[in-house]
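question for whoever is on the cluster today: can someone run the full assembly for these? two chains, 392 residues total. i dont have access anymore since they changed the login thing
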Amino acid sequence: MKLLQKKIEEEGIVLSSNVLKVDAFLNHQIDPQLMKEIGKEFAYRFANEGITKILTIESSGISPALMAGLYLETPVIFARKKTSLTLINDLWTAEVHSFTKNETNKIAVSKHYLTERDRVLVIDDFLANGQAVLGLINIVQQAGSSLSGIGIVIEKSFQNGRMLLEEMNIRVESLARVKSLENGKVVFLEEEAVGI
Amino acid sequence: MKLLQKKIEEEGIVLSSNVLKVDAFLNHQIDPQLMKEIGKEFAYRFANEGITKILTIESSGISPALMAGLYLETPVIFARKKTSLTLINDLWTAEVHSFTKNETNKIAVSKHYLTERDRVLVIDDFLANGQAVLGLINIVQQAGSSLSGIGIVIEKSFQNGRMLLEEMNIRVESLARVKSLENGKVVFLEEEAVGI
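^ ran it for u. tokens below:
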């Protein structure tokens, strides 16, 4: 997605060869017009898939997932990282390990909102080692829902998340694929000729 | 906002005389079409205010804030509840006490995205005791930004948040005002004749 690549080039900050900071438009400040275009693009790529629910994880997945839900005309569920007062019982849960933070957190989705009748699109802001997405897939499987695929805003293609998912024969659509962050520079994988 | 009141009546669950659970469309599962209408309504109520930034707090504030930002054509910032790897320095911070969870958390906003040139609309999902909103206002003040007002999706009018804000001469626009949750029933304050 050229619009997204341009935004990353202009406003992304390479903190190290592993870390791309996009707090300017995705992870802290959000650009609503860009999110709208991202939502449209996900809807275009997963049209005619019979999707009934979009599943993401708080907090940075919510904006792209919400806009995809707007255009696919489906509800959006965000997995909780910890349970809150009004969300206690009847949960599907999974463990998610973060290599960057070196901690494991439980994520949870209410059994009320994900069932065996659902066909699910999982959306997240970043794909790196794939741990968050694997946790979400685990929950989709527990619920007996069918998985349509994974929609990612920014993929760090030099980490092994995509490989793990492809080995499971899961479709992954990443709107920007970052090949390298070496020497403070963002290099993208060549984009397929699809969408915007 | 009649559409929102109807949704609360149909899908909200009264857990106690204090707690209204709206996990079906706002706090866990999200209804994107409803969020779009909510965003439009906030934009309508705060039009011609010269707003340059919308400030909310993760996670449930993000969806209504994002849609308001789409229609007001402004960026949206979500305050972080804890700092992450890529968000460490140059922060405005405030303490927010949660009476329901009986804990105090620090919230943080990057100094890069909120400055004295900004005019800010603060948006949140719920207004109860007003502690989260007061924390966000504190950050707006530290940044030297001007505050246009507060946009709330659901106000629990029987708690003292609105009173605290009105004593500070701050404009509060709540799209649904809940007068009481007694006896398992949602009773609304009469809605002003504005918007949808």
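summary bc i know u wont read the tokens: Chain B touches chain A through 40 residues (CB under 8 Å). Chain B has one domain: 2-188.
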